[in-house]
Every structure is written in structure tokens, then in C-alpha cells.
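Give me the fold.
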Amino acid sequence: MKINKVLISQPKPSSDKSPYYEIAGKYDVEMVFRPFIKVEGLTAKEFRQQKVSILDHTAIIFTARTAIDHFFRLCEEMRISIPDTMKYFCTSETIANYLQKYIIYRKRKIFSGKTGKLADLLPAMIKHKNEKYLLAVSDVNNGSESEILSNNKLNFTRGVMYRTVSNDFKPDEAFDYDMLVFFSPQGIESLLKNFPEFKQGDIKIATFGSTTAQAVKNAGLRLDIEAPSPEAPSMTAALDLYLSKTNSSVKE
């Protein structure tokens, strides 16, 4: 069956040079970027209910740029002034560079990893084992980072600063897709929340990541495309491979 319209459950790319657009042109496919989930910040009142005092900590751990946004938003709402002595540990250089939006970068002690994984930061954190760490996370954080920190006997507190919620479809919003592409289990939950009577039929479902793939199977749905794989290390590569078999290439 030829694929004509694909829903990518992510925000629209900021650049026209995105591989998704190249694939759309190559196979004459309409790509619609429409997240099934969205991030919502906790209010200052909700954050205080966790009994977490930000200024009791001497270092902050960030695993996402979203965490940075909501950390500084909450600080502003609660009128907390972060001291210049605060240390920042970021799981990637991209996340570390994003701090420049909120602080004077050269005047702070900032550490970053290369792989995007917390384990890569451990050597630097262990060197600063006397710090009191605050791990800024979302409500759907699976706790793996906390386990790593605990296993290495680091003094830390887990602070939930934002939540993931369903990005509901409007009653008059068209749902006429030939393929749905998901990147998180929460996206599957949102699909079933928005469409309790969802019947997959000929609609293809593609996922990125093993937990998302498992969520599709747990929901009793058919998984048609799974990435990453040896043949397709990215979602765009998986789509390219699949569409090469279902749609004749427009641009040879």
C-alpha cells in the first residue's frame, strides 16, 4: 500500500534541510509534525510539595534542555537567586551550551559529557563527591539516573520540575494518516486517550526505541517499523528504507 500521509509525533523541524523533508520529496509523501504529548511545567506550589530546597544543593544535574528551562523558570517564580558557586553537570555539550541562555557561562563551573548519558559524567562527579547534587527531571523519568547516582554513593535529591501530558486532538482535527511515528510510550498512551476506539487497520505504526516498541505491543497494536536497527540506525533511515519498498521514488 502506498503511503501518502505520515504523522511524525514530534515538533516541526526548525530547518528546511531536515531529512524528513528530503524523504517527503523523494517519495511524494506529506509529512505532518504533530506531537501527541507536550511538556507542562510544575507550578511553584507543586514543586514545593516535594519538600526540595534548591539552595540546599551545591550542584545541579541536567539531562535535557527542557530541564534547564523549567529549573530557571521555577527559580524565578520562587524568587530564588542561584549563587555563582553553583556547579552544573550536563550529560552533553549541547545541553551545557544551552545554559548560556540563563547564566554567564565563563563565570560558572560547568561539566559536560560526550555521550549524552549520565554514566559518562560519573568520573567528574566522583571527583566532586562532596557536592550535594540536585537531579532535575520530569514526572516520567524512569529512575535509571537515580540508580546510577545511588550506586556510586553520591549525595543527591531528585526534583521533578515538569510533566509530560497528552496533547489532545480537537474534535474537528483530521486524523487521516497512513502512518504514525512514535518516539515515546507516552505517545502511545496519548493516541489511545484521544481515540479510545482506535482501530489500526491498514495504518502503519513506526517507533524509535525499544520501550516505545514494547508500548505498541502492550497496547495490542501492530508494529510495522522499528528503529534503530542495523539497517536503519535512525528513524529517518527506517522511513527511507520502508518507503523505498512501498512508494516508487519520485526523484531518481
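The chain has two domains: 5-36+169-246, 40-164.
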